[in-house]
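Hi everyone, sorry if this is the wrong subforum. Our group has a chain we'd like a structural model of before ordering constructs, and none of us has done structure prediction before. Sequence below.
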Amino acid sequence: MQPIEPDEMSAQEPLSPGHRIACAIGVFVLQSQEMEHLFKFLIAMMGGGDPSLSAKLSVAAAIEKRSLGQLLDPLVDRFTGDIEPLKTHIKRVVDERNEVVHHFSKRFGPLMAEGRYEAILQELKNRRERAEELVFIFRELALEILETLRDTTYVDTDEYQEFATLCAKLRARQQTAP
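Answer:
Right subforum, don't worry. Here is the predicted structure as tokens:
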């Protein structure tokens, strides 16, 4: 595949099926990166024990190099109650992401060889939508934590305005999310 420069996009014919699939994979990968960042934030912020910011930062540093799959159990451990449906959904999304990122050819190669591009695009769309649901839920939870920090820990501090701006930007993004 030849790379397409952004300024050439409007002059180009519609994207080929291969390019459309590559774009769909790219969107899915970027979305999974946001999910990974959210998981790491929530694991660090929701853990019990020492509630100090330094302890939260220590947890964040300890899990920084973990992959998305390695974050599943520590994240689920932060929740209480009947979380089996949530855990099952998260595991499915993580497994689907891993299949696309690490085993795309094995899973989708036969469909590519048969020219079933629309089937691949539809499956990638379905996976993206399932991941999008999780990102929305966990972004909302992260926002609640950040807004609570803003309104408690950082109220009447020099950092309050920075937190307020961050929260406002994230809230606006959350409200325009698909």
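For your construct planning: The chain has a mean pLDDT of 90. The two ends are 30 Å apart (CA to CA).
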